[in-house]
Amino acid sequence: MRNHLAPHNSPVGSAPKAHDLDEARLWREPPRESDLVDERRQRLLPLIAAIIAVVFGAMALIGMREKIVRVMPFATALYSAMGLKVNAAGLDLRGVTSKIVTEGSRKVLTVEGEIVNLRRSANRVPPMALAIRGADGRERYSWTAAAPKMRLAAGESVQFRARLASPPADGADVQVRFAALEDAEKSAR
User: Where does the record place the region Disordered (predicted)?
Assistant: First the structure.
């Protein structure tokens, strides 16, 4: 028995012929320009979102590097490799001077300067690591000295003075750093 709706030369339930599909396409509306723009936007949105996320992530890693290094001290080496300085202590040494004075029959090296808290909150002040270097840049002698105050308020500064009796005669300069930072940098290497 034949289906009365199907053409006489096609079996029941067969796929439409190519000329039937072409005719259906003719009756369909062409895509509107706004539909094409929306489709392009939908394809670009994930890419734009990824670019924005990378930019903001990089800005956060750079802008918050002191906080990141405080939590992950090994990150100091990564920032150094990128050429970015990190002041993990939030402290600065300013106006550092050194001079040798004679007291009685012996020479005494006196190192003076100022410790400044750069943070907007109170900050612990670690001991200072001092080193005498020769003209060749090699360390001749090193020692630590306690800071005059253990904590500094936000923006506060304090004068320091460290002394060393009988310093090496071939010393050319004095390097002053914070002992805790020095230890963190050595462990990051």
Answer: 1-25
